[in-house]
Amino acid sequence: MLRETDDAETRAAKLQRIADALIDRVDRLEETRGSAWSMFQAAVALEQEAIARTRDLEKALADLSEKNRDLAVARAGAEEANRSKTRFLRAASHDLLQPLAAARLFLSALTDTQLDPLQRELTGRLAGAFESVEELMHAVLDISRLDSQRIEFHRKPVDLDKLFRRLAVEYAPMAEAGGLRLSFVPTSAVVDSDPTFLRRIAQNLISNAIKYTETGGVVVGVRRRRGRVWLEVHDSGPGIGKADRSRIFDEFQRAVPDGGPQGMGLGLSIVRRACTKLGHPIEVDSTPGRGTVFRVGLNAVDPAAGEGAGDAASPRGLRSRVVLIVENDAAMRRGYELMLGGSLGMVVRATGGTAEALAAMGQDDPPDVILADYNLDNGDTGIAAIRALRAAAGQPVPAVMVTAQRDARIARDCADEGVPLVEKPVGADELAAALLQATG
Question: Cα dist. 419→33, 90, 152, 386 in Å?
């Protein structure tokens, strides 16, 4: 601050300092204004960049939305195609399997007659051809069912020993034809599973083991370890290399050399699908040249709760028993008459529907067992026939249902009525086992 008493030199020094301070303040103001301008310019540039990037993002989102719509349309089309395939297979299965089932019955009846060597060879070759077609049909329908999102499982306690005895009857001829020993180790194990699909799993594993084993035999049994019951199928076949142990579970894959047993490579694919759906772990161990063992892990339940899987009593137990057949297809009726009345020695009454069956039963003369096809004429069904016949007889007459439809509703209805369900095409041994199961 200048004072009047300051001399000229002091005034000059003070003015110099004031001038320096003012210049310094001006410089700082200029620097601040320059920085703000730069920031303003940067902000404008960033805003323009943000606008450009927003436009790019909006375009990308629009493209993605369009692709999602296209994907949704494609997915809906694929799902509808899959549903159409399932509906077609379900609807066509009856018409496809009906003539095959009738042919199997006629062939079974023919085999029980006197044949010369050439005729026996021809019937053997026909039986092999029918078995191949049957195996293919069952495989395609099983895969269709297991791939369906609407598949229903009916889990219940399954007595493995009863299942083994039924499988022993079913696969003994196949093993004998190949010169193999087929052994089932008795067990007291009762497990939690769907009895129909567990049987299909065991059938595929046993069939594969017999098919690919040239000498020795196949042993089926149970081992308890790691808190589970393991259903095991051992064979003395050629074995499976490590590189093939995962591949064999894919469709149309076979780990055998050219010239070996022929197959479609679908059995193990069905096993894996069914085990995955049911939550049953599956393992395979093999030593090339020494054999293979497949294991399926099952949860044990109280043996007292065991649900019968079908006893394998002697078919002689059916001789002279009266069977009332309810089947609308004339060829199937004749096939049943020849097979049941011939090799099994049953007394057969064949009818085409509920009304005809009621008339054939007469008063106070119920049959020993009813054998009904599910699909009858004019909306009639085997379930309706069984209910009507039981009501007329005033007692729960034993019954067996035969169908070509893989339908959970039919399985539920049969379970409600306590009726064993057999899927077409049905062989003589399988039908005999079902009839024995129904009649106790």
Answer: 96, 21, 18, 9
